[in-house]
Amino acid sequence: MRDSISKKQECKLLPNQRIVGRWQRNSYRIIRELGYGATGTVYLAEGRGELVALKIASDSMSITSEVNVFRQFSKVQGPSLGPSFYEADDYVSAGGVYPFYVMEYINGQPFLPFLRQRGAEWTGILIVQLLKDLHQLHKAGWVFGDLKPENLLVTENPNCVRWLDVGGMTIQGRAIKEYTEFFDRGYWGLGNRKAEPSYDLFSVSMLFMNRGYPSRFEKTQEKSFTRLMTKFRQKDVIRPFEPVFRRGIEGKYKDALDMRSDLIQLLHGTTFTPKVSISVKPKTNITRREQKKIKQQQPSNPKKRRSLGVLESMLVASFILVVYILYLFGQTM
Amino acid sequence: MSKGTLRQILLLTDGCSNSGEDPVAIAALAKEEGMTVNVIGIVDNGDLGEQGISEVESIASAGGGISQIVYAKQLSQTVQMVTRKAMTQTIQGVVNKEISQILGEGKELEDLEPEKRGQLMEVVDELGETMDLDLLILVDTSASMKNKLPMVQEALIDLSVSLRSRTGNNNFALYSFPGKRKDVDKLIQWTPQFDSLSGAFKKMTISGITPTGPALQEAIRLVRKRMKKRGSDSDERFDLEEAGM
């Protein structure tokens, strides 16, 4: 009973290729590949008179599950939760039948690179936004599941966090469908994999951690809780968030709103000026490297600015001098 | 009340069988008996070799299951993914059969409109969540597996965490091969959860033989025995008592 569907070759589409759905007969022109995951490849495409994201499956079962999740949400939700769903169809090619679906194209920056260019307070602000959406999702009876930076995008004007991948979304009470170890409380031995709001809130806490440790780390023999707390305190860029992080991984928040208001409170009571988050004496090599990066991207560093000012006035002075000399020449001739 | 039980044998090995019956044939037999055989081939830094890989794939294919070659480090996620996927696939297989009965021979899920397909998938998901699962885990403990066993242990506890989060009931049993005197040794009786596996793999046998076929045969016998017991005695507590719970 080996499933012939899931064993099929992956479907690769080329730029400018046109694909037409078998059922709805809508046509899409592929522009470029946006990314790929376990269940399929996502392309930027043009169709329905706009830019869309088109996901074509290598595995018909899981893509059908994803479409189901989308259909659920298009019934109950507003547009803020993830990309809007447009339609599901099949692409028939010589190689076989490939199910695909079309959704809103969200243009934005990946979560962590966005934060790397900004002060520590931004981490808090984006997560406050995320928690609001998560609460909506939880109220609708769902859990996000595979919450991680790769599944988040930050849009421009206004800077808003949006989520992308609905593959891990699970009905509350069931077992989490998809997860990533670093963000999974089961992996750290700090809970089960039942889909409940606190599962997501654990992952939210680990988003902070990932901000401090971009390449993540693995568990050791050491007790997970102690290790996570120690690791968290070692990074200046996330240390201010420690109380919220802690309650998140302990599963102490009753819902996402609870965590959100706690975080807002914390943001109000903490100063995240560059002096605190950036100019603190670095403790590890990694922070120093990170600092350098931040310095490069933010030339507003006081020291640098001062030297810039000196340079500026020298330039102006010499310019005036040259003009004056020229003037004198003009007078004598 | 019960929606039925999925029966799986999960084989964890790092090499080729070299003794007794052909494991591929035995796996085919398991499939005939309504079980699924999934195989995970564990590689170290070297690789399994073509022959090893092909055996792993053939056993799973004959046993109606899924195979995966994986580095010991990534074992945890693979074990749970393979188990979950195989469950869905088994259910999906049954559903596909139904579809071809309704729509005609050769028709599959894809011949349904996306909307209807979605409704069907909902049912498959629901069943995967609520059906009971009997999972017999068969671990190769021949000499070359020695340094991988801590990873295996961790992966199995992780699997237990995952499966316990389901709504349906789970029962695990853990056997190793080659056994001291027999083909397989029982490490853990049927139990609803693995809390601790520490010490489970202490009884290691260092020997050059890998009797995968005979071990699978014994595994089938054990699952069948449990099936019969369940069939004649619907009271589950009986099983739990037996497992020492």
Automatic annotation (TrEMBL), chain A:
InterPro entries: Kinase-like_dom_sf (IPR011009), Prot_kinase_dom (IPR000719), Protein_kinase_ATP_BS (IPR017441). It comes from the Bacteria. One of its GO terms (molecular function) is protein serine/threonine kinase activity. The chain crosses the membrane at residues 308-329. Its EC number is 2.7.11.1. ATP binds at K55. Keywords: ATP-binding, Kinase, Membrane, Nucleotide-binding, Transferase, Transmembrane, Transmembrane helix. SUPFAM superfamilies: Protein kinase-like (PK-like) (SSF56112). PROSITE patterns: PROTEIN_KINASE_ATP, PROTEIN_KINASE_DOM. Pfam families: Pkinase. Residues 28-320 form the Protein kinase domain. The keyword Nucleotidyltransferase does not apply. PANTHER family: OVARIAN-SPECIFIC SERINE/THREONINE-PROTEIN KINASE LOK-RELATED, SERINE_THREONINE-PROTEIN KINASE CHK2. This is Serine/threonine-protein kinase.
From TrEMBL, chain B:
Residues 1-91, 134-245 form the VWFA domain. This is Ca-activated chloride channel family protein. Pfam families: VWA_2. It comes from Evansella vedderi. InterPro entries: VWF_A, vWFA_dom_sf. The lineage of its organism: Bacteria, Bacillati, Bacillota, Bacilli, Bacillales. Signal peptide: none annotated. SUPFAM superfamilies: vWA-like (SSF53300).
